[in-house]
Amino acid sequence: MKIAIGADHRAGQMVRHIIETLGSQGHEMLPLGVLEEGCTICDYPDLAYPVARAVADGQAERGILLCGSGIGMSIAANKVAGVRAALVHDEFGARLCRQHNNANVLCLSADMLGRGIIDQILEVWIQSDFEGGRHARRVDKITAIEQGKVLEHGS
User: Which pLDDT score is estimated for 33?
Assistant: First the structure.
């Protein structure tokens, strides 16, 4: 799988670990929003945008974003049409965001999560597939909202 990845200054070591780990599993890593060694601070939207854009444009199948809390990256990525970014803190969230929401960008907290739990989240998120069915109808409504369509309750 081709995965775009980005991280701010709070997640430098963790993003390098993820790139190495997933790369060794055969995934093609596309580091688009990763700070160069020695950078001390940045603005997370500058790093979230190229990853989200790559996923939305089909250059990558999925994306991974990390910042201190994961919140800023999630908000920024979700501003790009076609992106469904999910902030995840455990394996349960990783599974559901794929199965029910077809999340194509995973957002993680570098400050609150350790390497072990991040590895577990990644494994579940990569292996989980979208279930479709009733969930497809809901994801379609999210797409309609992105397109500026007005939703009627129950439609």
Answer: 72
67 is catalytic: yes
Question: Considering the entire predicted model, what is its pTM?
Answer: 0.93
Interstrand relation of 2-7 and 28-34 (parallel, antiparallel or unpaired):
parallel
Catalytic annotation present for 89: no
Catalytic residue among 67, 107, 135, 153: 67
- Which of 9, 17, 89, 100 is flagged as catalytic? 100
Give the 3-state DSSP-derived string for 82-113, with helices as H, strands as E and coil as C.
CCCEEECCCHHHHHHHHHCCCCCEEEEECCCC
CATH ID of 2-146, from 3.40.1400.10, 3.40.190.170, 3.40.50.1220, 3.40.1190.20 = 3.40.1400.10
